[in-house]
Here is the input.
Amino acid sequence: MLIRHAPDMKTSEITDFHLYLNRRSFLLGMAALALAPSMPAAAAVPAGERLKATRNERLTVEDPPTTFESITTYNNFYEFGTNKDDPARLAHMLKARPWTVLVDGHVSRPKRYDVDELVRLSPLEERVYRLRCVEGWSMVIPWIGYPLASLIKRVQPTSKAKFVEFTSLLDPQQLPGQRQGFLSFSSLEWPYVEGLRLDEALHPLTLLTFGLYGQVLPNQDGAPIRVVVPWKYGFKSAKSIVRIRFVAEQPKTTWEKAAPKEYGFYSNANPTVDHPRWSQATERRIGEFRRRKTLMFNGYEEQVASLYTGMDLRKSY
Ligand SMILES: Nc1nc2c(c(=O)[nH]1)N[C@H]1C(S)=C(S)[C@@H](COP(=O)(O)O)O[C@H]1N2
Ligand SMILES: [Mo]
Here is the structure.
């Protein structure tokens, strides 16, 4: 996101800083190639364990789903590298089970959950959602999960809880992108941290996911547990979560810390608010040729606009 050029970008818009990053990326990439023991070639995506769910027709979009192949081979998961095919190539390094998630902070019933306990906490639904990446591409993904609100109600936030912070796994052994010098730039702080306002986290569209396309989440898509917030840019949907913390202050997110002018806390998909370096008016749906118009709140305006009444979405980008 920070480095890759959005398709709409003009060369003149690329700052020296980003040119520097790209050159550095290339050189480091060459160095890594020279040093790395022979990496396994891109393996075919293995068939995952089945995960049963009931389709929620009401909250399923009509757009045809992106192919399983694309959903699992074209990814953003910087813990494995910045190229779209890095996660599919390297995500086998992640051990998604056993796995626990600490749910704590301002709640009456904090608890460390085993992920398999979380899977069974509430009935699993299949919901086909759009995913719009801030870089200008989009997908349609049949997720399996249940509303994050079900878990939130279970742990009972206190009146002090105003925001929810999501923390992804920190483990350079399993996540090579967290190793010193592996990525082309050092501007990202690990672990990956994201956040939502409590009312956004409680919104019925916000999904805690464990699978997609009828099977458990492939590692590259955020196994074993990932939050999905379909009206926001993709980076708000943190992968491989180990902690969900209820806090009083707005969390400092990874991308906000890296480039505050480019990636705000809200990051609602909005065709009328451009990224400083490119337009957000259109997107390329993976698998399609022509660009589509980006929809306000990624097409979920009717359901979520009321969360933001009275807010200036240019300021709270
Ligand atoms: N932990 C973590 N979560 C992450 C990311 C990441 O780099 N690390 N990338 C984000 C971005 S930028 C996008 S667009 C989506 C991509 O999800 P997908 O690869 O399943 O399509 O994951 C988001 N969640
Ligand atoms: Mo993204």
User: Anything to note?
Assistant: The mean pLDDT is 89. The domain at 11-308 is CATH 3.90.420.10 (Sulfite Oxidase; Chain A, domain 2). Residues 32 and 106 are 43 Å apart (CA to CA). The radius of gyration is 19 Å.
